[in-house]
Design goal:
It comes from Solimonas terrae. The chain has helices at about 5-15, 20-25, 30-45, 75-90, 115-125; strands at about 65-70, 95-100, 105-110, 130-140. With about 150 residues, the chain is an alpha+beta fold.
Length: about 150
Amino acid sequence: MIDAIDRRILRALQDDGRITNQDLAQRCQLSPAACHERFRRLRERGYITGFTALLDPEKLDRALLIFVEILLDRTTGDVFDQFAATVRNTPEILECHMVAGGFDYLIKARVQDMAAYRTFLGATLVNMPGVRETRTYAVLEEVKSTIALPI
C-alpha cells in the first residue's frame, strides 16, 4: 500500500520523469535520502515500471492516429495467442486491447498518412492470424492524450 507522500512522488514523476532526486525531494518535502528510499521502494514494488521520452509523432512522420476494431473469425486460445504475438511485433501498433462487446480487439496505431494506413491495412492488419473483419476510425482531432494516471 502507498501513502500520500508516495502519491506525491508519483505525481511529480509523471509531470517530469527526468527530475533529479534533489528536486523531487524538495518538491515532496522530504530529505533526499528519504525520497531516494521511497523511490527505490516504489520501483521494486512495481508502481514505477519504467521511464521513456515522449516524441512528437508529426515530426517523425506518424501524424495519422487510427483506431481499429478487430473481429476474429474464431475466439479460441490459439487464435488469441497468435494474434497477440503478431501485434507485439508490429511497430505501427501502439496499443492493443482485448475488449468485451461487439468485436474482439481495439487497436491504436500511428502511420504517416491515409495512404500509409491503406498499405498497413492491406499488407498487415487483414493478414494477421484470425482477423475476419476490421472497422477503422481515423482521428480528426486529439482532444486529450495523456499517459498520466489520476493519482
